[in-house]
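so i finally got all the pieces together for this one. its two components total, 916 residues if u count the protein bits. some of the lines might not be protein, just check the labels. i wanna see the whole assembly predicted at once instead of chain by chain like last time, that was a mess tbh
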Amino acid sequence: MAQKPSIAKGTRDFSPSEVNKRNYIFDIVKKHFKTYGFQPIETPSFENSETLMGKYGDEGDRLIFKILNSGDYLRKVDDKTYESKDATAMTAKISEKALRYDLTVPFARYVVMHQNEIDFPFKRYQIQPVWRADRPQKGRFREFFQCDADVVGSDSLLQEVEFVQLYDAVFTELGLQGVNIKLNNRKILAGIAEVIGERDKLIDFTVALDKLDKIGIDGITKEMREKGISEKAIEAAAPLFSLSGSNLEQLAVLKDLLKDSEEGSKGVSELTFIIETIASLGLQTAKLTIDVTLARGLNYYTGAIFEVGAPEGVQMGSIGGGGRYDDLTGIFGMKNVSGVGISFGLDRIYLVLEELNLFPEAIDQSLEVLCVNFGEKEGLAALKLVSRLRKMGVKSDLYPSAAKMQKQMKYANNRNVPYVVLIGEEELENNTFVVKNMLIGDQKTYSLNSPEEFINEL
Amino acid sequence: MAQKPSIAKGTRDFSPSEVNKRNYIFDIVKKHFKTYGFQPIETPSFENSETLMGKYGDEGDRLIFKILNSGDYLRKVDDKTYESKDATAMTAKISEKALRYDLTVPFARYVVMHQNEIDFPFKRYQIQPVWRADRPQKGRFREFFQCDADVVGSDSLLQEVEFVQLYDAVFTELGLQGVNIKLNNRKILAGIAEVIGERDKLIDFTVALDKLDKIGIDGITKEMREKGISEKAIEAAAPLFSLSGSNLEQLAVLKDLLKDSEEGSKGVSELTFIIETIASLGLQTAKLTIDVTLARGLNYYTGAIFEVGAPEGVQMGSIGGGGRYDDLTGIFGMKNVSGVGISFGLDRIYLVLEELNLFPEAIDQSLEVLCVNFGEKEGLAALKLVSRLRKMGVKSDLYPSAAKMQKQMKYANNRNVPYVVLIGEEELENNTFVVKNMLIGDQKTYSLNSPEEFINEL
């Protein structure tokens, strides 16, 4: 008996309409990546396990999909490992490859392996799927695309400025006005921990601070106390809890607060440069705001930290983020390569555009002209017309068989075709074709000798 | 100590230049898929194992990459299986998912699972990677892209006609003139086996016939004898061994040879319809030729069989192929869905275009304008210019730091930049910028107030 087919848990099929919408986003992102001088690379879907393992923490190691070795893979397992029946020990013996978990580690491997061909600073973008063995739930998938742009080999803050402009350019063209580009700097967080005398508790402090929006000042002070952060420190940090006003006003507060910390002051001056340069260049539709509670990927970032929030009124987590890191390639033995990068959250951007009805209407118009098929002779005349239309780049088709008119018109309707062409016996005799405009319902007759008259009207 | 990174066996990194060249091919193929009314779908990289296993024969099962279950996967293995230490039995217990082996089986699954949303005939294209655990060798990879277009739900021969036109359109636009679209029909092969009285030896017969080009008439008659095909049969089939002349002349020979076979005659009439319709429509640059030795995927195809050969003088196997199949979705319980499809062999097309120098020159020009960075103040003026250029869609960049002129010019050279912009102290005072044309070496000065003068000249 034939099996009932199913799709793997946590994965998705994409219908034509979904692929078109996803490509609409990718194409706009790519276009701007290119005008900003970024170049595409692609890396393989799977890597040798040692390239990936140990790079994402224990949880990451667990979530990496491992590929079983081919052939009689059990033969290579020694008796001791086999008898232990321990999955972790066994995995190392029966699996040598694993599916990519993100695009960052493969990029680092790429840079190290190709360092002699690359012209630094290297501006690369990469849009490829990644895989994670997470428990699937709403909005979380086991296969999803990441969309990253990074510059490595330059420590210039102009790169940070450029990424703010790039976010603005992409979201403006997507019609997503008013996104909030939040900006912070790891050095500011470190400086704060330093001046309040809690350098060792940097992570506890920022994790608590990060919850300011959710649990308020009382909530975070309580959490800080629980983590052993002193009353004196909490008091010293208090100006942060009610930081408000313009970016320049906030910078003034931070500058004062961090005046005794060298690192913190450096963070303030970096932040100031980015804010001032962007103010001088202007943004199209995005806002740029300082957010000292922003601490994403703290262990990883060393300078600027970015996060993009959807426009006000849209319930959605961040739709993009990134930051500067100082030692991407160190894990593979190439030192002192500073980098900064951002990513776009495709799936969330898709949901936001859908919610705000921002996809172009024509996106589901995969066919502009459908010729009705009235039989072999008429069909051949229609096929000649279709061939000419296609050569002019018009998406067109002939219904493949002389099915009932109703069935062919239903197909045209379902496929959202705006123009239906009729070449019946009479038209064939007169060497004409009739075009039915499906939107307004009228009909017009053209000569088969000069179809360009119709094409020009399209 | 840092590890030396490596790439998994049989996989490839693609550099910016390679990605651009691959996308050049994909974009042209996609453009024509769309004008022919095909719609894109995408399916997940991995499928449940039962969807893939048993669909490609024993060899295929062996070459499918299996993904290890997550967590403590050994716990679910019963003692008996574990003690047997048999890899095949074990695989079934510790792996539930596998990487896609081709795009055809996932497409069949898609059609069956989405049959109620699909408007038939369904014309879909799909361009995604597939994975095979083959031994890597020159030109054979463990990860490679397939590029397929299929129509399901129509048995009209117009689809075959359309695929011939589609091949012609794509290869013409790629500049690959004179490709040879070879055409055969499974029914003709079956008819031949019938009229020579060797119906049971259809596969042996066609496998031998397929070698005609390589081993000649003597070689194939010897092989046929060895396979137990009778002298009488070989004699009866002899007209095939020296089939020549125009398509119409060959059709006449076949028609006569197969006149007593119903199936064979049907094959001849199908072939005749395709050949005559194409003759009436005309092809741009491709040739369409009958090739009765063409037998690819014999177990699978039921009607037309296509294969595209590179233009004469290029040493390369087929660069495309396909055919009609009558029961794609039967394996998943959906009967009577006739389909026909073709594919493009991306990697080989890439090699042919490279060999014939057919990629556009501008493909490696990832940056049109580079501004030299002379310092903070000059840099800001340059950044403003770059921002304007980017808004106009010009791929442009500012060198991120005020490095030595020589270093910046070397970078411009390496990245193939045609225009280098200079804004030094003097230019900044005069509110101008200098454009150096890197190809002809001359310089021209423009006003920073009206950069559109330069843009219009681009």
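Chain B has a mean pLDDT of 94.
Residues 16-35 of chain B form the longest helix (20 residues).
anyway lmk what u think
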